[in-house]
Amino acid sequence: MAEIKEAKFQIGQVVKHRLFPFRGVIFDVDPIFANTEEWYQSIPAEVRPRKDQPFYHLLAENEETTYIAYVSEQNLLVDNSGKPVSHPSIGELFCRQEGTRYVLRQKPTN
User: Fold this and answer.
1) What mean pLDDT comes out for the span 88-107?
2) φ, ψ for residue 60 (rounded to 5)?
3) So where are the chain's domains?
């Protein structure tokens, strides 16, 4: 059985892709790959990440658009720019930005 690694990045952290020109805010983490095999095989073999590492769900943006990205830990770097991420769903999940992090909204208690 593969050892599950502790996630290096946290929910709310602003990160950027190591190879491609996009950045985003982490809103969920999978301890190991949890997407479809079809999605995995669509990544070119020379840049395909290992499955035995955390994968992050990002509210992502590039120069042209915003979208949801699913990125392996090996392909992420901390984005210390302090610039806000302009994804339209930020306000649904996060209440404010504090430096290089976004603060999660508190869920109402019943």
Assistant:
1) 93
2) -105, 160
3) 14-104
CA–CA distances in Å: residue 18 to residues 28, 72, 98, 101: 19, 10, 23, 18
pLDDT, tens only, 18-69? 999 999 999 999 999 999 999 999 999 998 999 999 999 999 999 999 999 9
At 85, the pLDDT band (50, 70, 90 cuts) reads very high
In angstroms, rounded to a whole number, what is the distance separating the alpha carbons of residues 9 and 18?
Answer: 14
Q: Transcribe 53-76 into DSSP letters.
A: S-EEEEEEE-SS-EEEEEEEGGGE
Question: Which amino acid type is present at position 79?
Answer: D
How crowded is the C-beta side of 30, counted as CA atoms within 13 Å? 15
20's tokens: 């491609």
Q: What is the rounded distance in angstroms from the CA atom of residue 92 to the CA atom of residue 72?
A: 24
| Of 44, 45, 52, 59, residue with least CA distance to 89 | 59
Residue whose C-alpha is closest to residue 78's, from 9, 2, 19, 4: 9
